[in-house]
Structure formats: structure tokens, C-alpha cells
Design brief:
Layout: E1 3-12, H1 16-27, E2 32-36, H2 42-46, H3 49-66, H4 81-91, H5 98-107, E3 110-113, E4 115-120, E5 123-127, E6 133-144, E7 148-150, H6 166-171, E8 178-182, H7 186-197, E9 201-206, H8 217-229, E10 233-236, E11 240-246, E12 249-254, E13 257-261, E14 263-266, E15 270-272, E16 306-308, H9 319-337, H10 344-357, E17 360-363, E18 368-373, H11 376-381, E19 386-392, H12 397-402, E20 409-415, E21 420-428, H13 435-443, H14 448-451, H15 464-472
Parallel strand pairs: 1-2, 1-6, 2-3, 6-16, 8-9, 8-14, 9-10
Antiparallel strand pairs: 4-5, 5-6, 7-15, 11-12, 12-13, 17-18, 18-21, 19-20, 20-21
Enzyme class: oxidoreductase
Organism: Microlunatus parietis
GO molecular function, one term: dihydrolipoyl dehydrogenase (NADH) activity
Length: 474
């Protein structure tokens, strides 16, 4: 017999977006069940944001200390690999989700362990770990928060070579002797930084001509320079044609050359985890990102009961943006359940600004990279009349205090017609916390004239804002 249960809202996927939707609807007076086949907390907690940044923090701290005369003399040894990995493990709770489950219980959210799939309108069938099944009926909404998985490109023999994906790279229990990385994006750069610092010989094989090619060119250039200085071999314009594993090594063929490493990490993008969700039972094509409106309601589904948040909708594959979408989505579900009319125009304008035009991200390489909004190239492609200004952050007093010989660059992209910032990029030590100030400026559409009155504290790295405004002019 299949157990039958009803809730106001059923969420498939207990990562941060799913947790936030469930929490928001329960706070709004609705009942909610969340379905999870793996660990409550999802990719971010166990295999992405948290463990990767824990791996990188020790390296960053050592680099910062070595860049300050006096403090540098105290650095007399290398990084303790075992302690670094143990600290990483502590941030994943040793891949146990007891604490996250306690949060669900405390919030009044029901957890259903197992694989959840749509089995018809407003219905989710859960195959439990014991082989039993439960059908959950949603009175108000079903929310898909299933995230994404690492893509494996169709390279001859690569799948059979048992490659690492980002999950392996962030959870490995010891450094490999050598690591070949296929890709030049965020995961590739962060994991090259982390494992190189822990003693692994790293080579990056990048198909494009530069690293971080979705950002301003100087971001990838400065990260590549530091990686090379630290011993990473960075090859651009390289295509891997074939792979094979033999004698405990992976052999990659690229441009007629054979490259050998103990492990190969594939960091070549992500694919939506929507292929096994029963989307065909409600007239949708499996395996694709789901089209949603600005309340994250899936388009093309009768009666508007299906929603998708986070990576599943493909709008922004970033944890903080998935959580942002979840808050908006949960609020919309609560309002609609009460019969309240949502002002789609005002709502849509705000969400579109955050989700498209003011999306922030930080890359925890050495140096750090922070970016929000459009690059200059993207702004021009969108038809904006813009002017860009750059400034070397090392010329700011706060930066010179932060590190001897500070090297870094800041860039603003300004819409000349509205006199507002539409893009900002910062590269350098300690710039992660600068990113939010740019996010506020862009999301709030603060004019250049008004920004002159946002006075940065002296002597901080934030004074670069003043120097950028002076470069731009009155």
C-alpha cells in the first residue's frame, strides 16, 4: 500500500533554496513537507560553498600574513594539510546532516527521506530508502529545488577514467600527487588554488583563451598570473581529445600530447538535475532548466501550482541567488494561498533587477575576485551607452596598509544616460567585502551624483570608491 499524505506545499530538494521556501511558507501559516534523497543542506553545505571555502581559507590567511612585514617573519612553516582537511570536515559536519534536520524539526517542516518525483498535477511520489512509497498531495504548490550536477563533456574515454567532479575535489581525504583540471571557470580556479597550496602538482587545461571568461578580462589575467607564480601550470587554448586510466594514473590526450596525472578534475559546467523528476507527467520536457516567471512559478503548467527555485530554473547558479529566489517564491505562494493579488509589475521589476542586473559573486582565489552586474562588454551588448573607469587598488592607503606591494584592480561600468553604476569588478586581496557595496549601488540604482556623498572610511580599501568617482569625474 502507498501511504497518502496532504500538505499545503511540497518541496523536492532540501538544499538552501528548498529549505528557504519551506521555511517561508511555514512562517506564513502553511504546512510544508520537504523531500530529500541525500543530505539535508544540499550541495552547498557538503560539496560546494562551505567545504571549498574552508579548503581555501588557510591559504588566503598565509598569503595575507606573508604580505605584511613583521608578520611575515612569524610564518616559518607550511600549511598543516591534515589540520586543514580536518577543519574542512568540521564545516561539513563530517557529511552528517543531524543539525540541519534539527532545524527542519524546529521550524515545523516535515522531512520525507527518499527520491521524490512528480506523479501528476500537485502530486509527488516518494520512494523511501526502505523501498516503500508515499504519495504527497500539495493543496497549494509543489516546488522543485533539485539543483544541478556537474557536467561531463563527451571526451573519448573520460567517463571510464573515473574523473573527479567538484564533489570529489572538495571532499578528498588527502591531496593527490598530481591533478589535471579540465576547465577555467570558478571551480577550476578555486580548486587549482586549494590543492596546489596543499602540495599537489596542478595543471589546468583550458579550452578558451583565458580564465574566468565571463568576467572582465583583467580578473582572469590576474588570477592566472598568481596561479603560475605559485607553481600551477596554466595552459589556454587547449582541447582534451581523449582520456584513459591505467596503472593508477589518468592519461589525457590534448593536441597530440599526453598529459599524465594521478587525478583529473572535470570543471566544465553544470547540468540541471531535472531529468528524473517525472516532469513528463505534467507535460514538461525532462532534463532541462525550467522556465519560470519572476515569482519562480513554472510557465506552461495549468493552474500555476508548480514552482522551481535555484539551479533548477537556470537563472543564477549561485547559492545566495537560489535563497533569494526562494524567499520571493515562498512569499508569493503564501500570498496566492490567501487570495491576495500580487503586483506582478512591481514584483517583477525588483526581482528582475536582482536576478539579472545586480547578481553578485565572489571567487575565493588568490587574489580574490568580486563582481556584480554587467561587464563592460555585456552592457554594450545590451544596448547601454556606458563608460568604464578603472583604478589600481594598490594606490589606496587602506590597501597599502593591508598588504605590502598590494596589487589589484577595480572597475566600474556606468550607464551614461541614467548616470548609475551597472557593473563593478574588484580583484585583489581582501576585496570580498567590497562586493556588497557595489550590489547596493546597482540594485538601488544610486546615481553617480549621490554616490559622491557615500563617504568611505579612511584608511580602508573601500576608499577605492572615491578614487573611481574621481576618475569618472563630476
Amino acid at each position: 500500500m502507498t501511504e497518502q499524505l496532504e500538505y499545503d506545499v511540497v518541496v523536492i530538494g532540501a538544499g538552501p533554496p528548498g529549505e528557504n521556501v519551506a521555511g517561508r511558507v511555514v512562517d506564513g501559516g502553511l504546512t510544508a513537507a520537504i523531500v530529500e534523497a541525500e543530505l539535508v543542506g544540499g550541495e552547498c553545505s557538503y560539496w560546494a560553498c562551505m567545504p571549498s571555502k574552508a579548503l581555501l581559507r588557510g591559504t588566503e590567511a598565509l598569503v595575507d600574513a606573508k604580505a605584511v612585514s613583521g608578520a611575515a617573519a612569524a610564518v616559518t612553516g607550511g600549511q598543516d594539510v591534515a589540520a586543514t582537511l580536518a577543519r574542512r570536515d568540521s564545516f561539513t559536519s563530517n557529511w552528517k546532516d543531524d543539525g540541519q534536520v534539527q532545524w527542519l524539526d524546529g521550524a515545523g517542516i516535515t522531512l520525507r527521506r527518499g527520491r521524490g518525483r512528480l506523479s501528476g498535477p500537485r502530486q509527488v511520489t516518494v520512494e523511501g530508502p526502505d523501498g516503500g512509497s508515499t504519495t504527497l498531495t500539495a493543496r497549494q504548490a509543489v516546488v522543485l529545488a533539485t539543483g544541478s550536477v556537474a557536467s561531463i563533456p563527451p571526451i573519448d574515454g573520460l567517463t571510464d577514467a573515473d574523473p573527479w567532479t567538484s564533489r570529489n575535489a572538495t571532499s578528498a581525504q588527502q591531496p593527490p600527487a598530481s591533478l589535471a583540471i579540465i576547465g577555467g571557470g570558478v571551480v577550476a580556479c578555486e580548486m587549482a588554488t586549494a590543492w596546489n597550496a596543499l602540495g599537489t602538482k596542478v595543471i589546468m587545461l583550458v579550452r578558451g583563451e583565458r580564465l574566468l571568461d565571463r568576467l572582465e578580462p583583467f580578473a582572469g589575467e590576474q588570477v592566472a598570473a598568481t596561479l603560475r607564480e605559485s607553481g600551477v601550470e596554466v595552459r589556454t587554448g587547449v582541447s582534451v581529445d581523449a582520456a584513459r586510466r591505467e596503472d593508477g594514473q589518468v592519461r589525457l590526450t590534448a593536441g597530440g600530447e599526453t598529459i599524465t596525472a594521478e587525478q583529473v578534475l572535470v570543471a566544465a559546467g553544470r547540468t540541471p538535475a531535472t531529468g528524473d523528476l517525472g516532469l513528463d507527467t505534467v507535460g514538461l520536457e525532462p532534463g532541462r532548466y525550467l522556465d519560470v516567471d519572476d515569482t519562480c512559478r513554472v510557465t506552461g503548467v495549468a493552474d500555476g501550482w508548480l514552482y522551481a527555485v535555484g539551479d533548477a530554473n537556470g537563472r543564477n547558479l549561485l547559492t545566495h541567488m537560489g535563497k533569494y529566489q526562494a524567499r520571493m517564491c515562498g512569499t508569493a505562494i503564501v500570498q496566492r494561498s490567501a487570495g491576495d493579488k500580487i503586483d506582478d509589475q512591481a514584483w517583477g521589476t525588483a526581482v528582475a533587477t536582482a536576478d539579472h542586473d545586480a547578481t553578485p559573486s565572489v571567487i575565493f582565489t588568490v587574489p580574490q575576485v568580486g563582481a556584480v552586474g554587467r561587464t563592460e562588454e555585456q552592457a554594450r551588448a545590451d544596448g547601454l551607452r556606458v563608460r568604464a573607469v578603472t583604478y589600481e587598488i594598490g594606490n589606496v592607503a587602506g590597501a597599502s596598509l593591508f598588504a605590502d606591494g598590494y596589487t589589484g584592480t577595480a572597475k566600474l561600468v556606468v550607464d551614461e544616460d541614467r548616470r548609475t553604476v551597472v557593473g563593478a569588478t574588484f580583484v585583489g586581496p581582501g576585496i570580498a567585502e567590497l562586493t556588497h557595496s557595489a550590489t547596493i549601488a546597482i540594485a538601488g540604482e544610486v546615481t553617480i551624483d549621490r554616490l559622491w556623498h557615500a563617504v568611505p572610511s579612511y584608511p580602508t580599501i573601500s576608499e577605492v570608491w572615491l578614487r573611481l568617482l574621481e576618475t569618472y569625474g563630476l
